[in-house]
Structures are given as C-alpha cells and as structure tokens.
Amino acid sequence: MGLTQSIKINENDNVAITVNAISAGTMIREDITANQDIPQGHKIALCDIPEGETIVRYGVPIGYAQQKINKGDWINEHMITLPNPPSLDEMKFAVNLVTDLPEPPKKTFMGFPNSDGGYAGTRNILGIVTTVQCVTGILNNAVKKIKEELLPKYPNVDDVVAINHAYGCGVAINAPEAKIPIRMLHNIVKHPNFGGETMVISLGCEKLTLEMLLDEEDITHENVVVFQNVKGHDAIMAEILAKAETKLKKLNVRTRVELPLSKLLVGMQCGGSDAFSGVTANPAAGYAADMLVQAGATVMFSEVTEVRDGVHIIGERCINDEVGKKLIAEMKWYDQYLENGQVDRSANPTPGNKKGGLSNIVEKAMGSIAKSGRSPIVEVLSPGERPTKKGMIFAATPASDFVCGSCQLSSGMTLEVFMTGCGTPYGLALAPVIKVCSRNDMKDMWQDLIDINAGPIVTGAATIEDIGTLLFNEMIDVASGHKQCLAEKYGLHNDFTLFNPAPIT
Amino acid sequence: MGLTQSIKINENDNVAITVNAISAGTMIREDITANQDIPQGHKIALCDIPEGETIVRYGVPIGYAQQKINKGDWINEHMITLPNPPSLDEMKFAVNLVTDLPEPPKKTFMGFPNSDGGYAGTRNILGIVTTVQCVTGILNNAVKKIKEELLPKYPNVDDVVAINHAYGCGVAINAPEAKIPIRMLHNIVKHPNFGGETMVISLGCEKLTLEMLLDEEDITHENVVVFQNVKGHDAIMAEILAKAETKLKKLNVRTRVELPLSKLLVGMQCGGSDAFSGVTANPAAGYAADMLVQAGATVMFSEVTEVRDGVHIIGERCINDEVGKKLIAEMKWYDQYLENGQVDRSANPTPGNKKGGLSNIVEKAMGSIAKSGRSPIVEVLSPGERPTKKGMIFAATPASDFVCGSCQLSSGMTLEVFMTGCGTPYGLALAPVIKVCSRNDMKDMWQDLIDINAGPIVTGAATIEDIGTLLFNEMIDVASGHKQCLAEKYGLHNDFTLFNPAPIT
Ligand SMILES: [Ca+2]
Ligand SMILES: [Ca+2]
Ligand SMILES: [Ca+2]
Ligand SMILES: [Ca+2]
Ligand SMILES: [Ca+2]
C-alpha cells in the first residue's frame, strides 16, 4: 500500500507510473484503485480523462486520449494519439541559463595528456584505422598476431584495435551527405586515446583516398600501409606488424598524470529505455553531468530523435542564437532525412520501450533529455564533429546505440555513460562505457553486466543526488584507470558503426 | 612492336587499349603512333575523332569526344562526355536467347546435401545469426571460446561464424525499404552451408523480433538465446556454448556426396576493375558461367550500377516479359535511390578504375556484364531474395563488394568468383571466394592472394576458353572441398554487410 506503489513526477501530471506490476483492484493512492492489471512501469490515470483531452507526464503533454479514460485505468500506447512535434520555427534561446550547478567532489583525474593540447586519453590504445572494408580480412588477422606477439612486450599499452567499417568504396563519395561518414573517419584517426600515433591501412584503389582521411603531413611511410604497393599476403602482414611495433614502442612511454577535468570528454546516451529511465538513471546521469560541467569538463548528449520532442526545452538552454540555430538545423536535417525514408520520429520507440511503459516518442524524449542535466548548452555538433567549447554540448547523432557511440567517439569521447532500462551488454573498444540501469530487478538479473544501479531512487532508498554523485565518482575512477567498467572486464566491444545517409553504389 | 601492343575488341571500335605503358612516339599498329605517353590499359584513338563524335569500345558508344581527338592520342576520362543511360521504357525482351552453350567437362560435384531439397553446402558451418548489434560483444567472445574449446571435437565442421550486423534496432523498422535488410537476415539463417541448423542470438527488446527473423516453427528453446531472459554475463556465455555444442554435434554428421551441379549456387562479382577486366577475367568468368548453366547449375551476377548501362543487352537475354519487367523495376528503383541521394550512376567508378583505364561507367559496365556470359536470364532477384529458378540469374545488388557479396550470401550463394584488376584480398566467412585477376603483373605482385590469372589472354598465351575452363574446374574443386581458395587458406573474411536503404533512427 502507500505512495511507493506509483510515481508521479510533476504536479500537473494526470498519470503516474507503477513501481511494480499491480493487480486489478489494488489501491495505488488514497483515492485511486487500479481498474485492470497493470505491468511494471506503465501509466495509470490519476483522474478521469475525457476523449481528446491531454495526457500529461513530466508536466508536458505526451499525447491525447483516443477514448475516454477512467481514473484508475491502465493507459497503454494504443490509447494515446501522438501530438505534433514542437515547431522549429518558434524557438526561444538563452532564456533558461542556470548557474547553480552542484559542486563536484573532485576536479581532477589521472589521464594521458596529448601533445596537441586537446582532450586527454583515458586509455592508451593503438588504433588502426582503415580506409576501406577491403583490408579487413588481412588486418583482423594481423591484429590478432600483434596482440599475441607484440602487445605483451609493451605493458603500458592497453589494447590494439582495428577500426573496420563498411565505407570507403562502393559508395557515392561525392554525394552531399557523404561528408558525415568521411568526417567520422577523419576525426577517429585523432582520437585522444591514440596518443597522436596515426596508423592507417589502405587498399590503394578505393574511393576514400588517404588525402580525404588524413592531413597531408600525416601521410607518411611510417603511418600508412597500402596493400597494392606490397608484394602479396605475407609481405603485407609483415609490414603491418613492423609498423605496429614502431607505434607500440612510442605509445608505451605514455604515462598518466593528474589533469584538470577540462581535459575529459564524456559522452552520454541511453538504450533499451523503460518508464523508469526518465525517473532514475537519466536524471542521476544528468546530475553527474552537471557536476562534470561545473568542474570544467565537456559532456555530450545526443540522439536527435529523442531530443526532437523536447527541443523547446533544450533550445531555452542554448547559450545564444548561434548555438540555437545549429540545433534547429540539425533537427530539420533529421526531420527531412526521416521523411525521405517515408517515416517520422514515431519510428524511434522499440517493442522493449513499449513493454517497459514508454508509450511514445514524447514520453521517451522527456526521459531521454533528463540525462543532459540543467547546464547551459554551449555548442551543437553535426554527427562526428569535434567540439570547440567546454561544457554541455548537444552532439547530433542517431539514437541507434552503435551509431551514436561511434559518432561520439569520432567527436573525441573518451568515456561513455550508458543508461538502460531493459538491459544491454553494450561496450566500445575505444573507450570505457559505464552502464547504469533504471530498476533494481534489472541489476538483480544482470549483476555482472550493470555497473551502477539507479533503482534505489524508485523506492526512496537513494536520491537522484546520491546516485548522481556515485556515478560521478565512478566516472573519475574509470577515466583514471583505477577501475575497469564491466564491459572492459569482459572485453565487450560493439562494432564501430558509421552513419552514412548517402547511397551505396 | 606489333599487334600485341594494343587490344581492339569489336571491329566497330575507334579506340584500342594499350597492353603495356607506351611512350610517346611508339608505333602501336601499322599506321598508328602514340602521340603522348599512355599508361597501361588506357585508350588510344585509332582514327581522328571530331569533337562531339561517338567514342566506341565493345562495339557500343561509351561517350562523346569533348574536344577534337587525333589518331594516336591518349583518351582519358576528362575527354569523354557520359552518354545518357539506355531508356528503361523501350526495352526488348527474349530476343537473344542462345542455346549453343559450351559443354562442361564435369556435371557433378561433392557437396553437403540439405534435407530441404534446396542447394547443397560447399562448406559445413555453424552460422550464428544475430537479431541486433547489441549482442555482438558477448557473442564474439563466445565464438572465440567455441572455436578453441568445442570445434576441435567436431572435425567435420569447418567453422563457426557469428553473423553480426549494425541492423536490428535504432532503425526505422516499418520504413518501406526496411524489407531489404530484414529479408537479407531472414534468408541468411537458411544458408545452405548451415545444414538446416538454426542458431539465433537475440537481446530481447530490439525492433527486429524473432518473429520477423524466423519461421514460427524455428523459434524454439534449442535454436534461440535471448540475453534478457538469462541471468547475467557468465550464464549467457554458458548458454551460448551449450546450444552451440548441440548444433555442432548435429553438423558433425554431415557428409559430402556426389551431387549434380543443379545443387550448386554460384555468385559472380568484380571489384577494383581495370580496362583488362572486360577483356580477360570477366569474359573468362562468363565462359565458365555458361558451362555451369549448361551443366544445370545456378549462377547469379549482380551490381546494378554496373549493369545499368548495358541493361538493353541484358534485357534481350531475359527469357520472358515477366523477368524483363522485374529487371526494369530493379533498375528504376536504383535510379530513384541514387537520385534521392543526389547522385547518379556516374558515382560508381573509383579512382582505381580510372587509373586502370576505365574512363566511365559505360566502359566499366560493358566489361562488368561480360562475366554473365551468354546464357538466357531466367530470373531477376531483389536484393537478398532466394532464387526459384535454375540457370543464369540477375540478382540486383549494389556493386559495393561487401554489400553485393552479402546479398548473394542471403540469396544462398555457396561459392563466389571474384574478378579484379587492381587487386583485393576480399574473402567471405560463409563461402569460399575464388579470385581471378585480369593482368599478369597483378598475379606477379600478389602470387599468394590471386587464385587464377586471366592475364595470359592479353598476350595470346591463353584463350578466353582456356582460362574459362580452368576456372570452371577450379570452381568444382573448391566447391567439392578438394581444394581451398587462397582467401580460405589465410582466413580472410570481410564483414557481412547489410544493404539498408531505410533510415537509422
Ligand atoms: Ca536512447
Ligand atoms: Ca541510444
Ligand atoms: Ca575441420
Ligand atoms: Ca564490379
Ligand atoms: Ca563489386
């Protein structure tokens, strides 16, 4: 009995979500009894809602009643009409710039400084970037050999990673949108975890030329292997191994030093969200993000289709018109991209989201943007662009976990925080990923896959601030190499996945 | 000196290609002297060609002179205006159905029969298909363990392969074009090399549900692992290994038997083509294809953007209007797809193609379609569809080597023949790939990566029929497991790459 049976977020809400599965007839609040069995995390009507009336959660309209809804009814996705997305032509910028951010418990971390003066590394990795998928077969075998035979000789190097992808040839390289995958590859070469050591594998006849991938001064004999210039398989293998060893020697002298958090670039995203994500994990991440920003760090949040319905809220946090206009441009680009594919933002929610109680994209969006906290938004990035400002940044990317993570890596992310409701073993080869779940029973199910449990917020056993601070400290520990996240412990690596909106030829 | 300095293909041609690099002043034919240095494989004018006049190779117009061209001039890509593509609205079908195909030296091979009565396997593989990229990290580690700990116990099984991909979630699953990646995944589960053993790894909350991937009767506890139903990392690993072992036991009893070639499904494609590809490797492959068809086998050729400019020639070979109309539909779909991306078929040729003497897509196309030989075309497939007819089939796919190969695998291909000019180490995990090069110096450079050299055709040391017969015999040997191709020997595996023309969300 009692109030922990359901969670109402905003005083204007006319729905609450159930903390656990509830049987018909259960009293969930003083004057409200469930009229049907209601699954965990799903919505219950707190009052009668006439047909066509607004359904309010997070204090915002998440849709309209398709039929009369009675107090105590379970409200599922089929009972809600999706509202129109917020207009992009009537946005207000810079009207909600908060300054009262929470004080961080620490302001430094132990990172690998980079000589370019940019963000520091959180790991020390030999990254081998490819121009084209053609080289993947030989390169993968070479990397296996490098890890077995060479890497043990260089104990300060954490890993050797081939950045394979399906781009580079058989693509419309001059299509307008080809700039996105090309930018992603160009920028991944300079990832802060690679320590400025460039190693690129090329076939020789591909469309994505070395000149498109590298700055001119980086196209050197030491940095590049071109298969078609080498006399056969065994010679190619030998050349890759020899060049890798030269790079490993250099990387092996990198050492961690205490650095201000202004040298840390964190990415945030969510995947497999449920109705608790927006109440527990994402707000806790938002609190941690606010502390990072207060400490001078840079934090990116992303996932355009999950921001689209809260764009008016994000717009108000943009520090000026220039930032706001780029936000609109990215949103409009995505609206058009989806329209070209004959879909719209309603294509985002998954069966898992819906089973978890998220009826539509508006409800999902309001939970998703909670991970960005309250800080002013200082910059908006196109997919894979590198930040030029420090603070909270909206990095426009698809919501697809792999594409989002890869875009954030291309932007230079060295640590990701990933919120999940249903659970995912997601991990990246190029940066550690801390996974935060939204519910106690998720953590119970996957003890060895979920790093941080935000579930205690549901029951009142912890506050958003408690879990946010816990997460902040975990981020510093993992970034500093004092601790491995669970995805690292098990070596869970999702593919580097380019965003290519241009045609394949 | 003499006639082997240049190759003229059709008596109507007003250009020839150079057999080797030629210096200015060299006499290449009785009355023709090179006016400039000409790279190997590039075109030389056999007569004066006034501005605007047609340039003819393969007996077809490959474009128009942008300026006056003198007899003996080097003709490069900047001197040729691309003609309009053949109209798709004035096609003639079934007017060139040949019956005089070459007799094959053999009509059987040693394959693994399948109980569904369909195509036989050429290899015996445990294929583990994923619904979504989320599962990749754990699955890759599991496959490593399976190969180390279990596979050695089952010596009749050739390999264990995870079919990872970037699809499954974070995609517009209801977009019209989503049917292509979904079909590819649905069909890859039933690949002939998997022996009817289905093993699928799912997360649990993804958009691509088990119901979309599998037939209802295949969704069983034995066939499927759903991560979100299993209690954590170690338990998931244990369940994958246990289910894999059950499958390995069953696969281990498969044996090769002598089968008619009607049980063999071969795919053909080319990549990194040069001006010799259309003179040597592709025509030899076409001759071998004709022998396969004559023996009752099924042969697919693909690469829409490389067929587009020869579509009128292909159309005449379609056995009836129904097949022809599907050909047009696939071509129109691709024209529109490219137009949506603000490009056209001219986006196909690569820097390598151009360096190799292929000035534009028309010239490339005429060489590319040579690999289909002369047989009647009995069926046209949409990307990833499975054939219902035996004989020569046009399987519409992108020309991208990885996407084309993956589409052909989804169509059930168990052996691929791959023609190359510049050279690629291309290989597939699910089927052997025989690589055929177009030039002697390519084979000299990559002795250990090129299976068959069609270069002797250039110098007259071998005929198209000689190399075609050699290739036919190699195909039978490799399909029968009597021989490994070089990509297999070194374990060169390119990624399974889905064709997804629909948006990412
Ligand atoms: Ca998300
Ligand atoms: Ca996501
Ligand atoms: Ca074996
Ligand atoms: Ca080709
Ligand atoms: Ca190709």
UniProtKB/TrEMBL annotation, chains A, B:
Alphabetically ordered keywords of this record: Lyase
Pfam family, one: SAF
GO function terms (MF aspect): galactarate dehydratase activity
The keyword Lyase is annotated on this UniProt entry: yes
Domain SAF: 13-81
Biological processes per GO annotation: D-galacturonate catabolic process; galactarate catabolic process
SMART domains with a match to the protein in the record: SAF (SM00858)
Cross-referenced InterPro entries: GarD-like (IPR017654), GD_AH_C (IPR048332), GD_AH_second (IPR007392), SAF (IPR013974), SAF_UxaA/GarD (IPR044144), UxaA_altronate/galactarate_dh (IPR052172)
CDD domains xrefs: SAF_AH_GD (cd11613)
Family statement: Belongs to the UxaA family.
Name of the featured protein: Galactarate dehydratase
